[in-house]
């Protein structure tokens, strides 16, 4: 007897070979649980989607080789690693902080 529910998935394995997997079950709850488990396994094994509706080429997600710079709040001076104060004058606003040489606007080499 044929199963009441089936799910078919085409994918390329980590080596790039085309593969097909079919899951079957007698009820919707079981098939959904199986699909969730299969999807987790596919992601963990480095598989990529394949088939007529998939993009022709899917690049694997690769973690950056260098850590991303931490996000800082507005007005953070990355030169001196400190929070700057916001100033306003004549309708113009800017951030700066005082250093031994005068004022820093958070730009390397004194660039404005």
Name a few traits of the molecule:
alpha+beta; three-stranded antiparallel beta sheet
Secondary-structure map:
Layout: E1 5-12, E2 18-25, H1 28-44, E3 48-49, E4 76-77, E5 82-83, E6 85-89, E7 92-99, E8 102-104
Antiparallel strand pairs: 1-2, 1-3, 4-5, 6-7, 7-8
Written overview of the protein:
This protein is an alpha+beta fold and 112 residues long. It has two domains: 5-49; 76-110, no CATH class. Helix content is 15%, strand content 34%. Strand 7 (92-99) and strand 8 form a beta hairpin. The radius of gyration is 27 Å and the shape is rod-shaped. The model is unreliable at 56-61 (pLDDT under 50).
SSE ordering: EEHEEEEEE
Instruction: Give the spatial strand order of the biggest sheet.
Output: 2-1-3
Residue windows where pLDDT falls under 50 for at least 5 positions: 56-61
Radius of gyration: 27 Å
Number of strands: 8
Shape: rod-shaped
Structural class by secondary-structure content: alpha+beta
What is the CA–CA distance across the termini?
A: 76 Å
Sheet-strand content, in percent, reads: 25-35%
